[in-house]
Amino acid sequence: MARTLGIHDSVEAVFPPEVLEAELDDLDATDVSVVGTGDVDGLDALVTFAHDDAFLDADLQWVHSVQAGVDKFPLDEFEARGVAVTNSTGLHGASVGETVAGYMLSFARRLHEYRSNQERSEWAWADREDSFTVDGSSVSVVGLGTLGQGIAARADALGMEVTGVKRTPTPVDHVDRVHPTGELHEAIADTKFVALAVPLTDETDGLIGEAGLAAMRDDAVLVNVARGPVVDQDALVDALEADELAGAALDVFEAEPLPEDSPLWDFEDVIITPHAAAATRDYPENIAALVRENDRRLAAGERLGNRVV
Hints:
The chain is of the alpha/beta class and 309 residues long. It is built from 10 helices and 12 strands.
């Protein structure tokens, strides 16, 4: 009997699920179909963007998250039911790294300001004191996994001084100095950019709050491509209003989509992107490669790659 793999329609948040279905049409022993929440019973495996409690009641063997983060999945409950959960970590180093490089270049060369001027048909230079080059500037990358290493490699290539923070302060390519997590405030105290690339855990929830923001230079820019709750958003707004930071580039937020009444929309020196730092036209193809390999492993009784539980 053929195995059955569903592609949950929540995948639409990042790409059409039918595209992934087509990418997986070469799975000879597995029937692949796009499904809604009411169709998960009877499936052997499920690829999804979002969690639904109905997944826990289905007789699934394996759930794959198309995101790297699985903080919204009840992992303990899946584990108790003997359901394997895998994620898509390892895919986004290049896309997120380039996005962060773009943020930093925008602040240095004032590209976001000129874009706003264009919308007003306004021909004007940015303030001379606000323009600089990233070459010779500095960034502290907090979290040196796949995302952080992607950021570090591109910052190094742009001529930046790169420091970093990770739990075990072992050397990392393209990073001049690695601090342990206990030295977070020291690590972010004297860099122009602070880029957050950590997963959301109990330890990183609220990692950058009032004290962390106070530790940063008043001309520093905070970049968050981690998860929204890693930053205390109210504290960030307060710091921006008090001119205690030069700006922020934010791809993730405590509530998504970012509410229309959020004060973050109103700051000229805040760049907002809609949780799109990892987006690329190759996303479905890359997810398909992970799913295809794990489908083979599932059939062979081997341990799944990128397994979380």
